[in-house]
Structure formats: structure tokens, C-alpha cells
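REQUEST
  id: r-88c1
  op: predict_structure
  target: Amine oxidase
  payload:
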Amino acid sequence: MRISSPALLAVSGLAAVTSASPFFMKNFATGKKPISMPAQYKHAVLQNNNQNTTGPCYASSTLSTTKSPLDNIFSALSEVEAASVTKFLHEQSDLNLTANVNATSWDNVIVLVELLQPNKSDALPYLNGEGPKPHRYSKATIQFQATLEPYIQEFMVGPLPVSNETTLQPLNYPFNKGVGIQKIHNADPDEYSQFLVNISTSIEDILINMFGGTFTNSPDDVVTIGPSDPLWIDDETGAVTTWNEYSPAPTGLYGTGSLLRSGLAVRTDLTGRDPSKWSVLGWYYIGQFFKTTDDLKAAFNNGTVDYIKPQPDGDWGVTAPSGPVLPQDEIPPPVSVQPAGPRYGVDTEEEYIEWMDYSFFISFTRDTGMRLFDIKYKGERIVYELGMQEAVAHYAGMGPGESAQAFLDSYYGFGPNAFELVKGYDCPAHATMLNTSFYWREARRSHENSICIFEIDAGYPAARHTAVNYVYTTKNVHLVVRSVSTLGNYDYMFEYAFFHDGSIHITVRASGYIAAAFWAANADYGFHIEDTVSGSMHDHVLNYKLDLDIHGTKNSLMKLDVVPTTEVYPWADGQPRNTMKLKRSFIETEDDSKIDWAPNLSTMYAVVNKDTPNKWGEYPGYRISPATASTAHLTIVNSSDLKNSARFAEHHLYAVQQKDTEPRSAYSFNSLDTANPVVDFDKFFDGESLDQEDLVLYFNLGMHHVPDTQDLPNTVFTTAQSTVVISPQNYFLQNPIRETIQQVEINYDLESQAVTGIKKFGSEPAVCTYDMSNTVANLSDYHGGDLVVRKWPYDPSNPFFGTTEIEQIGN
Ligand SMILES: *[C@@H]1O[C@H](CO)[C@@H](O)[C@H](O)[C@H]1NC(C)=O
Ligand SMILES: *[C@@H]1O[C@H](CO)[C@@H](O)[C@H](O)[C@H]1NC(C)=O
Ligand SMILES: *[C@@H]1O[C@H](CO)[C@@H](O)[C@H](O)[C@H]1NC(C)=O
Ligand SMILES: *[C@@H]1O[C@H](CO)[C@@H](O)[C@H](O)[C@H]1NC(C)=O
Ligand SMILES: *[C@@H]1O[C@H](CO)[C@@H](O)[C@H](O)[C@H]1NC(C)=O
Ligand SMILES: *[C@@H]1O[C@H](CO)[C@@H](O)[C@H](O)[C@H]1NC(C)=O
Ligand SMILES: *[C@@H]1O[C@H](CO)[C@@H](O)[C@H](O)[C@H]1NC(C)=O
Ligand SMILES: *[C@@H]1O[C@H](CO)[C@@H](O)[C@H](O)[C@H]1NC(C)=O
Ligand SMILES: *[C@@H]1O[C@H](CO)[C@@H](O)[C@H](O)[C@H]1NC(C)=O
Ligand SMILES: *[C@@H]1O[C@H](CO)[C@@H](O)[C@H](O)[C@H]1NC(C)=O
Ligand SMILES: *[C@@H]1O[C@H](CO)[C@@H](O)[C@H](O)[C@H]1NC(C)=O
Ligand SMILES: [Cu+2]
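RESPONSE
  id: r-88c1
  status: 200
  body:
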């Protein structure tokens, strides 16, 4: 997804903050670790358990507090921790660091200071009350660029707080390349922008003909150009090249940049840090390749190629309503209310949530945004860790403008792009909101209200039955935790939903603008959706880590096949009968643990514990199943763009042994050299046993996205969504849904049709007077100024994208 910030854009993000490049990526915001709770909320919470059902209802926005029994060892570094680590780093003269505010692209800088995820082997004893709190360590990402061969290196600083025992060590153990070092091949974004200006000058006539102006790297330009992502790196020669496609600049308010394409693209060689050695390697225009700029110009001049003017920005990309108002749509629609206040508890200090029989911690990082840890259900841990690892958006097309686009979005970061949610729209107005933040380039970046938590009725019952003289039906009230990360053109909504049947639904949805292609000569790669616009086909694959622990860490992966069979039974005259049966087996080792969902879903998988059979001898566990048709793995086999950096995207489900040295399936700077990634997921598979070991599953959500006219102006969450469900399998002796009293049983006499009893089991609906103004959030509170919703192309003179704006975000 995200066409808006191809490789160089992002690298300029990594480059000095002082950069004025139009590709400079802003918004490194977000944080967590909320401040203490306002007093008025505490008051409201105290009242909360004393519901007065006849008086006025409680205000929906009140916080409900709880106190975490343990410290959140997964929480982001505090301001003090991060600042002291930064100071410590600046004191290490070997690092030769320059403060970001003063740095050029030839100075070493600190990029990220963040919590180093504790090892599970240290965390579990603490969580189980059997060991000390693990020492906190910081991960420090440093960009070394005062050199001809710049690179990023990961370090480990700790233990914290900083003392005379704190050391700085290269961080290598989580990286199966052996070292946490990644070369940077595009350290000079400003020079590269100037190079593109120079190229544009050389074909000025063509650009003026096509767009009515040329590219000067100014905000007033009518045409933009930017590199594809990832860069191409020739493994033999080391040459670094990239394709760059020209696009009309958006002219209105709306974020339409990624819809506008021209089909005219240039390949550049940007090897090394001496811009005078950079060169043009050729041109592509709707089906034709030209080796030199002169060839391209000759072809335009002598009539070999025709100009096809790219469609400009227009109403077709506007999202505000148009056309007649739908019948009755002016009437306020149904809305969710929470008449008696929240029925869940939030410890905002520790980011710990309790709802009914569930509890868990929230963690938030720059790379991947929100993740959950230590999910307990009915007093026992079922999940140690659950979170998105990496998101791939892989395009294809007749030309390089699409074929060379394969984004690994954690490079840009899901944290910086998790903006404030709109109350009453993105989440119910009664939701509890959490802030997020992280420490980037020596500044704390925060986004208020960027995670929401709320309880909601699904609108259909969780269970019901009608019998001869009763009917019963059970409400399907569940808890949702949600965030949205806007990566360039696309908005990904991440959601975890907890249900009374013990199931957890993991969902991602996509909206926002598609990244389109130029229509001409591209019919095999998408639908024709506007005058000169193709809905460029692409795959979304979002990889998740799921570390289930079923009654402890020693677990196995059960495979259950529903198989057609022909059987002879003694009770059927010896005649063969065509039927089906169950085939139980186990995935014994990592050799067999790269799994695709069976096309007919006749195979089921569950993590079970063989050592704790239930009273019927069955192994308790949690099943994992796709809940939507779209749970995709990558269509492209052995992608020429992503090479070894997206091996996690090749199947639906994977199981491996848990290792402290394998905390994540990806690394956020893998896209800088996709053939030689710092974390290569394939190396997790070395034939180890999966029989009563600590297992970690990785699964993919996503979709094959073939945008059509219904993706204009935006893709919609309602169809672009993907869900996997984990649910108990023989884990309880009955379905725990029975425990909620939010159900009714109506007894009746069939003869007389008279109701003979109504049982509500102690549940009472609220009949208090509800102040509907509680459903209306004050949208003037929205922090649009801080939360830089990025547009493509980036525009340095626009205050939204300015350096000052970033500084404001931090404070
Ligand atoms: C979020 O940040 C704002 C501004 O600093 C603060 O007023 C609010 O209490 C914070 N919210 C939480 C839940 O900590
Ligand atoms: C409930 O609210 C009503 C109306 O405000 C009030 O008259 C009544 O005393 C309250 N009852 C309790 C138990 O607080
Ligand atoms: C930036 O450079 C100026 C001038 O050398 C210096 O006074 C200032 O302290 C530097 N800022 C930081 C944060 O190091
Ligand atoms: C330290 O960095 C500066 C640029 O900030 C560079 O000029 C200098 O050569 C570097 N020193 C060493 C020893 O690498
Ligand atoms: C985590 O485990 C690895 C592998 O055993 C070890 O090298 C590393 O030091 C541990 N990290 C911390 C923070 O203790
Ligand atoms: C470290 O600091 C502690 C207390 O501040 C002190 O007692 C100890 O001697 C110091 N150790 C070293 C090696 O400096
Ligand atoms: C761009 O062209 C100018 C003028 O010819 C030249 O001075 C500059 O070095 C060129 N820059 C790049 C990055 O090619
Ligand atoms: C036009 O220019 C192209 C590119 O140089 C060349 O291949 C082609 O033969 C030329 N055609 C004519 C009609 O001159
Ligand atoms: C389902 O598909 C699998 C292949 O993935 C096949 O082996 C199996 O027979 C099919 N089962 C049914 C019930 O069609
Ligand atoms: C992927 O493609 C490359 C280049 O064609 C080839 O060298 C490599 O062996 C392939 N790898 C796999 C796993 O197929
Ligand atoms: C809404 O928020 C704005 C900005 O914080 C504030 O000025 C205004 O008073 C608020 N309105 C209401 C009705 O609370
Ligand atoms: Cu898409």
C-alpha cells in the first residue's frame, strides 16, 4: 500500500531533519505511556458500580480504572529513560554523533531509541510471579553516514536506568544475518531530488507538452516524480538503480496524488555518494523502452510515440458526498450508547486492560504500532504475544512504475502513522482513548487518542434457540481494541476483538486511495477505471505473530482433516458407503510447518497441549481459522523486488519454535537491501520439533486487490477486510458463552400462547435518561495540526509538512 513515500522519500525521513526535500517524510509521531488520570474521571469511576437505573445515565466518556497487578514490561520507554539513553549515546565518542537538529546527510545521527522487547525467557517468570522483573534495555538505531558507505546499525543500551553498569553493545542476537547492520544506498535525498530536477530539465519540452510545466522540486510544480520502492541493487556489480514515474500534481484539497499517473518513467543509477557519477539508464513510456534521453526525445519529435495527456485531478477523486441525498439520510442514524459507563477497566499508566474474564497489556512501537501481550482468559494465559509484524503491498504492471513497487511498510512505520481517531466515527463516542508516542530523532512524538477501546453489541445474538415452550437468546457484546495507521495513500485499520465464547478476532481493513497506474498498455494488470487510469492490481499481505501458550508453553500443532471416504459398515449389508471421516494428526517439525489453508477449508489447525488432556481424553487448545475469504498470501513467487525480505508472505500460516533470538519475522530496514535482509524469515525453519515445544505461529491477513470503479474515490473497509479467528477447541468443557447473564429466556405455554415467565438472570436494561449529547464528540478537539496526515507528493513549503510542525508534534 502506500505509494506516497517510495524509498527515497523514506530515506530522506531517515536523513537529517533539516532536509528540505519534497520527499521528506514527516509524522514520526505517536507514543504511549499516558499521564496520570484526571481527577474527575476517578470520581466518575467510583460511581460506576452504583448504577442508578431510574435517574440520569452516566456520561459515556468516563474512564473506568483498574490497577494492573504487574508492571507492563512491554511498555514504551518513559521520557526519562529515552532521554537518558540519548544522553548516554552522545557521550560515546566512538559513535561520533551529531544532534539531529544540526545534522546533514554526512553526520552520524540517532534515529530511534525504543524499548528492546524483553526476552520471553526473562518475561515469563515475572509474569508468572516466579521471578524478578526483567531488566529494561533500550534498542538504539543509529545511522552512520559520515562515511562513503553509510549504514544503519542497531545497538543495545542497558540495563536501565542508566548507571555506571549500563553498557553499549551492538545488537545482533535478534537478527539472523548475524549483525544488526544494514547498508544505506540512498543517503542523499536532497542531491537525488536535484538530480531529478536536472533530468526533468533535459526533457522540459516533453513535460510541458504533457503536464503544462516541468519538475523543479518546488511546491508549485504541476508535475511530480519520485522513485519506486525498493531500490534495485545488483548483487554482482553493487549498482543501485531505481525507476521514477512522473505524475500530475494534485490540485485540490483531497489526497488524490496516488491516483494520478502518466506512464512516463526514467531509470536512474544512483550508486555511491558522488552525484556527478549518477546517470540515466533509460526511459519507459506506455509499452516502449528508450535507451537514452535523446532516443526518447527523438521518438516524441518524429511522431513514433504520441502524447497521451494524463488525466488531471478532479471530482472523480473527491470523497465529500455528491449527488442527491439518500432518502431519509438526513435523519440521525442509530448510534451506540453506554448508558451505565464502561464495563471494562483500563490502567492508562500501564496500558493494561481488563474486560470480564480477559486481561492483557498493550505495547506500541514505531515499527509495527500496537501489539498485545499476556492475554489471559479466565485467569490463565492463552496468548503471550499477538501483533502485526510487517505489511507488504506488492504491485504489478506492464511498466516499471508499478512492477517495481513492493512496499514493506514497517520501514515507514505503523507507529508514526497511527494518527488520532475521530470519535463517533472511527470508534463510538463512548470509547476509551489512549495516547501513543515514541522517541524519534531526539524528540518524543505523540499522538493523542490513537488507540480506542470499547464494548459494543454485534447487532446479532451470540446464541439462541426456540423450543416447544421457550426461546432464549444471548447478546453478543464484545470488546474491541482498534487503531488506524495511514501509510501514504492507504488507511489500515487494525483490530482485536474479544468475545464471550473465548474467541479473539484479528482483523485488518483497508481504505483510503488506491495507488493507480496509467491505463495505456496495461490492460493485463487491472481494470480501466477512469479516463487514463488503471486500478493497478496488487497483493496486500500482513504478517502477524501469534504466540499461543495453552496451559503452559509446551504445545503441539494439531491438524484435523475432514476427508471424503468410502467405508464398509457391518450394519449396511456389506455395501460400501461414500461418506467422510476425521483424520487427526500433528505437524511434527518445522519441515512441514509452512501451511496454506485448504481451498475448501477442510483442514483445521489448533495449538493444543498433549500433556493436559481433558476428562474425555481430548487435548485442549485454540484453533486458528480464516474468517473471511480474503486471507491472502503473496501471488508472486520469489518476487524480483522483495527477494529474501518477504518469505513470511509466501503461505497462510507458519509454526516455529519460540526463540529469544527470533522476536520478529521482519526488520524495518530490510527494504534497503531486499536480497540480504537483516532478518530472513526462511532461516527460522531448521527442522526443529514442534512436539510439545513452545510454539509460535505466524499467519497472514490480506487480500488480492484488483481495484475497480468501486475503489473510486476510495477503497472501502466493508469489502477490503481480512480476519483470522482463534477460538477454544476442547479447551473448556462447555462454551463459556453460557456465563454471560446478558440473555433472556421467555417461557410460554404453547396451547394458550401465554408467556409464563421471563428470565433475565439478573441482567437489567438501563432505563435511565440518556443525555444524547454524550454520543456527539467535540470534533474541534481533533489535533489535525499535530497529526500530519501525509499527502503525496510531499511539499516542504506547506506548513503541514514543515520541520516546525514536527517539532510541535513532539511537545
Ligand atoms: C492523552 O494526552 C492528553 C494530552 O497530554 C492528556 O490530557 C490525556 O489525559 C492523555 N490520555 C490518557 C488516556 O492518558
Ligand atoms: C436515582 O436517581 C433519581 C433521579 O435523579 C433519584 O431521585 C434517586 O434518588 C436516585 N436513587 C439513588 C439510589 O441514588
Ligand atoms: C547545534 O549547533 C549549534 C551551533 O554549533 C550549537 O550551539 C547547538 O548546541 C547544537 N545543538 C545541539 C542539540 O547539539
Ligand atoms: C565524525 O563526523 C564528522 C561529521 O559529523 C566527520 O567530518 C568526521 O570525519 C567524523 N570523524 C570520524 C573520526 O569519523
Ligand atoms: C535475550 O536473549 C539473547 C539470546 O539468549 C541474549 O543474547 C540477550 O542478551 C538477551 N537479551 C536481554 C536483554 O537480556
Ligand atoms: C557504580 O556506582 C555505584 C553507586 O553509585 C558505586 O558504589 C560503584 O562503586 C560504582 N562502580 C564502578 C565500577 O564505578
Ligand atoms: C544538476 O545540474 C547542475 C547544473 O548543471 C549541476 O551543477 C549539479 O551538479 C547537478 N546536480 C546533480 C545532482 O546532478
Ligand atoms: C524516431 O526516433 C526513434 C528513436 O530515436 C527511432 O527509433 C525511429 O526510427 C525514428 N522514426 C522516424 C520515423 O524517424
Ligand atoms: C478439500 O481439498 C483438499 C485439497 O486441498 C482435498 O484433498 C480434499 O479432498 C478436499 N475435501 C473435500 C471435502 O472436498
Ligand atoms: C529466486 O529467484 C532468484 C533469481 O531468479 C534465484 O537466484 C533464486 O534461487 C530464487 N530463489 C528461490 C527460493 O526460488
Ligand atoms: C470543543 O473544543 C474546543 C477546542 O478545544 C473548545 O474551544 C470548545 O469549547 C469545545 N466545545 C464544547 C462544546 O465543549
Ligand atoms: Cu489495495
